[in-house]
């Protein structure tokens, strides 16, 4: 019985409305207890400060004064959540499989690693340039009617559509 409950929480996909309810409840709680918005990109800055403490990176010192903020533990929780899901699914292990992309592209593992590293770096750069990540802008910024967040979210969506179609056309055999 407990295994079935854990499986339904950690392995089975949640209905869209359940995820929305959880995020919707988390938003006011974060504002009430921490006076901040949910977002991941700031936590990565904290991780850089933890990993490279001796580096004289001014943008890290100015922006991330509190090294061990709740965001670091949030990122650790994301990783642990994936690990727990993997264990409860019965498919524990590491994989380079990325669904449709790797099944069609069939690149060697080093090429996949470079592709996804560059992609992740560009996402991080975009988040820093935009002043926050998609979750921060799209969930909190729009909820607070910030024009900049509405505009950035529109461009996130347009950029995502263009990028997905470009990858599809160049690497995955043409149009959808």
Could you give a short description of this structure?
With about 180 residues, the chain is mainly alpha-helical. The chain contains 9 helices and no strands.
Describe it for me?
By secondary structure, the chain is an all-alpha fold. It folds into 2 domains: 1-94, no CATH class; 96-176, no CATH class. Helix content is 72%, strand content 0%. The chain has 9 helices and no strands. The chain has helices spanning 2-10, 16-34, 41-51, 58-63, 70-89, 100-105, 109-129, 134-143, 147-171. Helix 8 (134-143) runs antiparallel to helix 9 (147-171). The model has no long low-confidence stretch (mean pLDDT 79).
Radius of gyration, taken over Cα atoms and rounded to an integer in Å: 19 Å
Number of domains: 2
Q: Separation of termini?
A: 42 Å
Q: Please report which band the strand proportion falls in: under 5%, 5-15%, 15-25%, 25-35%, 35-45% or over 45%.
A: under 5%
Order of helices and strands: HHHHHHHHH
Largest sheet: none
- Mean of all residue-level pLDDT scores: 79
Strand element count: 0
Uncertain spans: none
Category from helices, strands and their pairing: mainly alpha
State the helical fraction. Answer: over 70%
Global shape: globular
